[in-house]
Amino acid sequence: KAGVTQTPRYLIKTRGQQVTLSCSPISGHRSVSWYQQTPGQGLQFLFEYFSETQRNKGNFPGRFSGRQFSNSRSEMNVSTLELGDSALYLCASKPRTGVDNSPLHFGNGTRLTVT
Amino acid sequence: GNSVTQMEGPVTLSEEAFLTINCTYTATGYPSLFWYVQYPGEGLQLLLKATKADDKGSNKGFEATYRKETTSFHLEKGSVQVSDSAVYFCALSVFNGGSQGNLIFGKGTKLSVKP
Known about the structure:
The structure holds 2 protein chains of 2 kinds.
Chain A: E1 5-7, E2 10-13, E3 19-24, E4 31-38, E5 42-50, E6 53-57, E7 64-68, E8 74-78, E9 87-94, E10 105-106, E11 110-114
Parallel strand pairs in A: 2-11
Antiparallel strand pairs in A: 1-3, 3-8, 4-5, 4-9, 5-6, 7-8, 9-10, 9-11
Chain B: E1 3-6, E2 11-14, E3 19-21, E4 23-26, E5 30-38, E6 44-50, E7 56-59, E8 62-65, E9 75-77, E10 86-96, E11 99-100, E12 104-105, E13 109-114
Parallel strand pairs in B: 2-13
Antiparallel strand pairs in B: 1-4, 3-9, 5-6, 5-10, 7-8, 8-9, 10-11, 10-12, 10-13
């Protein structure tokens, strides 16, 4: 079974640009979450999607958005990039949302560098 | 609010040494507790979990016991190997009346094991 796939692995953008990151969950997984990892703040939750609907949202500005498609693939978008958005963005999937203790399966991440 | 505190690293040990990484938490509701591991250049992998008080999670020689009275979930291994070198994250997820929330992570502890 293929794992969580994130593309691209690396991105370099300049301030003010926007960026789209893609995530393909494990087959059969319908919940997709996104996390930002930085040396200073650690791992922080961005949002979770299930059945094409955002189910949960972290404390990030509106410049960070996402969506999920009918095949459960997800994208996240960051507009008007700032230097502080440089981070490793991790996508994770699990079979379902709600009352569920099944573990998250993480992709290898997209390393975004903003210059 | 909900939070996780884990011992700061880096931790450097010799092969076959005993490992303890401390983790304490603050949570409302009924938390599930997790240890994730991140190898260089990769995403996070679930190492073990415990979903209720006094549960012991174990995997690959690692163990952690959910201690409600001390709000702790310390990670232990009796004899570490060079291949255990990685960053270890303690995390919690809170069940609040029907909703399983997102993962809240500690800052991570980098472990280096020398031959």
